[in-house]
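Revision sheet: structure tokens.
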Amino acid sequence: MFEFIQKLSTAARGGTREVLENAVDAQSLRILSQEIYECEASLKESKLHLSNVVAEKLSIKRKLDAQKQRVANKEQEIRDTLEQGDETSALLLAEELAQLETWVKTQQQQHDQLQDYETNLLQALKRTAFTLSKYRNELNMARAVEETQKSVGKISVHANKHSHTFSRMQESLDRIKLKHENFDDKMLAMQNIESHIRGEPGSQEINKKRAEEVLARFKKSVD
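Predicted:
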């Protein structure tokens, strides 16, 4: 009994899975389109984040350049003070220079870290954008193929639906052609009769005479 219940449960799960798979297959293009849209939205957010990183890096770079100039000025000031023999003042200036150099070193490290982060993020964005472009093209192609298949399917259904009508139309056309041919035969027969009454050669006699002339021409060329 328990084994039977397990099998029923397994069958139910299988049925649910099949229903879900069929639903996914039926909406596959819509699902892919939404997935691409969400990835593109995430890519846009990443680009905004990258712009913030670049802006912060540029801000640090400006401050860093200014502080490096202060360091250079402070170094020159220390040299001038030492040349004047004022070591006490030079020592105070050296302490200020040490603090500046520590700050510059810290800012330089932050700038370099942001530069590395920018480079890595930019490469990742390029790869993502390329992949998204490929999937977007594949989606457009899949949509075009699906529309073509729908059109072909409609044409096939239409042709099958009206095949009997087309057959009747062909029969009617054949009857019309036969009627025209019969009319032409009657007209030709009447012309032959009229020609015979007037003593004129009919179409058959004319054709026979032409055939004899052609044959005579060939005999002459052979001789």
